[in-house]
Amino acid sequence: MTEIPRDRNHQPEIPEPPAPAPVGSAYEPEAVELAWYRYWEEGGFFHVDPDAVHEGGKEPFVIPMPPPNVTGRLHMGHGLQDTVQDLLIRFKRMQGFAALWIPGIDHAGIATQNVVEKTLKKDGIDRKEIGREAFLEHVWDWKQEYGDIILQQKRRLGDSCDWRYERFTMDEGLSEAVQKVFVTLYEQGLVYKGEYLVNWDPDNQTVISNEEVDNVERNGSLWTVRYPVVDEDGTETGEYIDIATTRPETIPADTAVAVHPEDDRFRHLVCKTVRVPAVGRIVPIIADDYIKMDFGAGALKVTPGHDENDFQIGKRHGLETVSLMNLDGTLNEEGGPYAGMERFAARKAIVADMEASGELVKIEDYVQTVPISSRSKAVIEPLLSPQWYVAMEPLATRALEVVNDGTITFHPARWANEYRRWLEDIRDWPISRQLWWGHRIPVWYRTDADGERIEEDFVVSVDSPGEGYVQDEDVLDTWFSSWLWPFATLGWPDDTDALKAFYPGSVLVSGYDILFFWIARMIMAGTHFTDEVPYTDVFVTGMIKDKQGRWMSKSLGNGIDPLDMIETYGADAVRYTLAKLCAQGQDIKLDPAAFEGGRNFANKIWNASRVFGRFVERDDAGRPTEDLRRQRDFSELNLAERWLLTRLHDTVEAVTESLNAYRISEAAQLAYDFVWRDFCDWYLEVSKAPRGESPARDSLALSVEVFEKILGLLHPFMPFVTEELWWTLRPRAEGEACIASAWPSPSKEETDPEAAALFTTIQDLVTGIRQVRAQYNVPPSQRIRALVRAGDAATASALERASDYVERLAGLSELAIGADLEKPAASAAIVVGAHEVFVPLAGMIDLGVERQRLQKEIGAKRGFLGGVEKKLRNEAFVSRAPEAVVAKERQKAEDAKAEIAALEANLADLG
RNA sequence: GGGCCUUUAGCUCAGGGGUUUAGAGCGCUCGCCUCACACGCGAGAGGUCGAUGGUUCAAAUCCAUCAAGGCCCACCA
After folding, report:
1. What local confidence, expressed as pLDDT, does residue A688 receive?
2. Pairing of strands A507-511, A537-541
3. Are A258 and A287 in contact (CB under 8 A)?
4. Using CA atoms, how far apart are residues A219 and A271, in angstroms rounded to an integer?
5. Which residue has its C-alpha nearest to nucleotide B12's C1'?
6. A448-459: per-residue pLDDT in tens?
7. How many other C-beta atoms are found inside a 10 Å radius of the C-beta of residue A204?
8. Residue A700 CA to its chain's centroid (Å)
9. How large is the average pLDDT for residues A621-628?
10. Parallel, antiparallel, or unpaired for β A409-411 and A537-541?
11. A845 confidence band (pLDDT: 50, 70, 90)
């Protein structure tokens, strides 16, 4: 049992934070990322103890990480899912939750056994020769060597999981849980042994579940074979039944021929007998309405030992079940002359023989659905075999309830439908696997005098009943341990502190590819064994595809390695890009070039910090020694600052809301817009001191203050660069890290919608002047004059106070503002709402260009006005639409008219 | 055979009954090495929101049908 750490016993020493990069240096992600991850991990910043909940009163927020396969390497799917999980964890941690992300590894039964077997084969070692025990030693060695490679790779991505909780699906605790669950289910009558047709994988020589079978369309043949009707002593009556089959090699296992009871062609033959071609067995003709009269030749050969439907027919009619295949896919003695042949060789041989004997009537091309093992890609053989099953229906009932009653919510909601569909039509789960690597089935058989086990005489128990018993050779399906993951990782079945504190969990993040395999089964296990849902929210991500929308696969060689991307662009860039692409539930067509966007954003933030960061005094190590921030009063802030704080407040609110609703890409976009557009493009430009002057301390202080909030806001998306910059702004106390900071929550008090609106007007004025400059190719270095004729005196004086913004941003040498200024001759005019801007362009003005510009502007406005007026002319609209909507449209029309009038006046002015 | 998803700018995608005349990134055009950033700055061009019909005062947005692409499930030999 892994001991769950407790705070009072574990007080990790917080290391020295890495020294900041020198001021003015370019952003180099790799060095920054490695250093900070070490700092966080060693400093215990990911640690969450049960006491934080029990005694600290913190609300838990728990995500069980889908344990990657021990054979695994990080792929883009992990990149995406881990980005989402870590983002949520960091977000909630900053919000003050006891945010626990539980990592671990899955032993991945078949996959791992295959890999190790292949590796050994290269050294000339055969699994069967060395035997079970020796083989398992190799697998454990392999696990030791490669087991946590992927977890190391996840660290590179920045995953902030509490590694002290790391579990392996075959470690002691998980094994205990698995055994207990098997025994419990057996005692509840929900585990049983049955002999049914199973999906047999002849390559891996194990049974697999339906979910592990892929049905693929393949070009095959449909052979029509003639079955002669014979009497009791085997003489042909001259009649015959033609039967179409896609699997002639199973003919030797035919135990009947079936026709539809109402089929007039064959009705008189029912109860008679036919001779099976190739092997000469005499079998009855039966009637069953499963048969489709219009398919093939209208009759079916019944092979209960090798086809699920035939098996059902056989049951109904009490037919013998002949199993003619060995576990390796060769025919056994039932195959008669074909015994010992591999199944597809047998098919060829049997077809050739029937062709020669005239029993084969025809061969047609036929597209059929072939079941394939998703692991080995071998064609699945339905085979009669005794296996252990879990009766799923009782478990499914509860699991359906908790989704139907809203205890568990899927995001996006449509996955709940898929989930229901599967559960409502659930089949029993074959859980035994004929493998060596996995949890041994806790069933003990009594042995007879020869040491052979007696199949019917067994005990189900965790421990051996003692002498005279041997354990079942088989192991359990990998998912039989992973379905316990959310609670077994916390110590279940023991009632640990951790379990009490952190179960049930909060969110599961996973791809839809394992909705049935894992997500649904976890919910079944949770409700059945713990009487709780394992988590309340399921966030289902889309799958990552290549640029052309194809699945990434080794064989296509179209995979994009996240580690390569991290090396090239940085982990923050990879994370931000994936977050941005993570629209709810949609598959993602990934172009590696997309990561450039993330890199550019990280770089932008880095550079933005230099604008004010270079004015912070630092010691020799580059650490800040002064705190620029100061007490301030919102009302004393200037217009731009009040606008910025208003935008900050709104942005934080919107991002928080988006994250809470799992709208990850929206949150990423909102943060991006604020940081790049508002903060960098407008605020930083406005706040810069005039050439040659030093910026005001108050202005720097606000930049630092807001930037700190920005770093917090971006931290869940881009933890590394934000943490790095966090330490460059002001002196920090030990452990006062960005990761441990509180989620920004700017005060509503510190917003000023009026200031924000005025600033927007200023932005429009500036943009207008810039447009004129661009139109006339005025070089950026050339200062020009401009006049603003404000629509009213109040705005005029407000703009007057903010005139240096416009001057600076529009590159003006002089700016006149007033409510009744005259338009100078030979000037370009811009209409911004009720205000007009005149740009005197003596000597430069081109009447043609100007006329064109104004006409285009008028055209656009008229188009707009036309639309609005059309609405207003519609009486139904005016009478039925809400008053506010109508009023708004009226206002729009009026504003547009005024603007058009102003533009037209200016146009007329040109002569 | 059932069910689901997608179709919006050249490309990749947001948006999801009234948000000024539909947005972003990339690409494209023009001008800029403006002392944070060319991984950048400024200005632009470019969509009758797959088609048709309907509901509504109002549809890219809701409904129906169709078309194209994709996915999942299913026992047609």
Report:
1. 87
2. parallel
3. yes
4. 35
5. A589
6. 888 888 988 999
7. 20
8. 41
9. 88
10. parallel
11. confident
